[in-house]
Amino acid sequence: MKCTRFIVLSAAGTLFAGSAFAQLSQAPAARAQPVNAEVRGSDAPAFADIVKKHPGYLERSDVPRDDKTLAILRAHFKEADANGDGHVDEQEYKAYMAKSH
Question: How far apart are CA 73 and CA 80, in angstroms?
Fold first, then answer.
């Protein structure tokens, strides 16, 4: 009886350890994401690619609605506008997008 219990517990421990190891070995690959040269850790477009109307800054209405990567910027535009002037310049854009992703 004790021998059977030992075998069952050993088998269960081996299965548990094996599945935990398999998950750990896959985790780094799942977390690896491409790095955008413009904004680290984000798929957001470069600031220069979305600035169209005003040279050097964005207003909330300038942020494209059809770009899902910019939806968070549209939703939290006032937070991205660090100096509160109603515009997001390139430095504010880079800082906010790096922070939000």
Answer: 7
pLDDT digits (tens, 9 = 90+) for 8-32: 445 445 544 445 445 545 544 444 4
Strand partners, 89: 57
**Backbone phi, psi, residue 88, to 5°:** -115, 115
Amino acid identity, residue 24?
L
The residue type of 48 is A
How is residue 82 written in tokens? 């660090």
Q: What is the 3-state secondary structure (H, E, C) of the chain?
A: CHHHHHHHHHHHHHHHHHHHHHHHHHHHHHHCCCCCCCCCCCCCCCHHHHCCCCCCEECHHHCCCCCHHHHHHHHCHHHHCCCCCCCEEHHHHHHHHHHHC
